[in-house]
Write a structure and sequence with these properties.
Blueprint: H1 3-21, H2 38-42, H3 50-68, H4 73-92, H5 105-108, H6 110-133, H7 139-165
Length: about 170
């Protein structure tokens, strides 16, 4: 097992524990919940095998579902994010970048990484809360959950990435 796989396993378990034990119990203004586990999917390097991204995304989503009592909700949303992550990453990388470029503030720059994070997290929250509500009768609550959770999650990811870059 190489160093990158070991670091992914460690990040997987840390994000799982933090989400299940701490972040699932935070509901700011009854609508904003931090969904920090999305950070794992954002960190896959360029040209990482797509089946690997899907497998990691599904496994983390299923693990969150098991401990959060949300049957299939997180697994479906994370698998979709894992499916579109390479395409989102290609939008923000320079044309002459190396084949094994890893997304970070250092490699992409603060602005590009921030846009990448915001776009990926907003797509994830849109899918997650649409599947969770499964109706649009209370669309104000649905929209406030999407906006609040997107903002809170993106800020947490950017803070962690900023600390990691130092």
């Amino acid at each position: 097992m190489n160093r990158n796989s070991l670091m992914k396993f460690l990040l997987f378990f840390v994000l799982l524990l933090v989400q299940v034990l701490v972040l699932n119990h935070i509901h700011l203004f009854d609508c904003a919940t931090p969904l920090l586990y999305v950070y794992l999917v954002l960190l896959f390097r360029r040209n990482y095998p797509r089946w690997g991204i899907l497998l990691w995304s599904f496994a983390l989503g299923l693990s969150i579902d098991v401990f959060s009592n949300t049957p299939g909700l997180t697994a479906a949303s994370m698998t979709l994010l894992g499916l579109i992550q390479p395409y989102l990453f290609y939008l923000f990388i320079p044309r002459d970048s190396p084949d094994d470029l890893e997304p970070s503030m250092k490699s992409l720059g603060v602005a590009r990484f921030s846009y990448y994070t915001l776009l990926a997290v907003s797509i994830y929250c849109l899918v997650f809360f649409t599947i969770e509500n499964f109706n649009f009768f209370n669309w104000q609550q649905w929209l406030s959950c999407i906006v609040g959770s997107t903002a809170l999650t993106a800020v947490l990811i950017l803070v962690i990435e900023n600390l990691r870059a130092r």
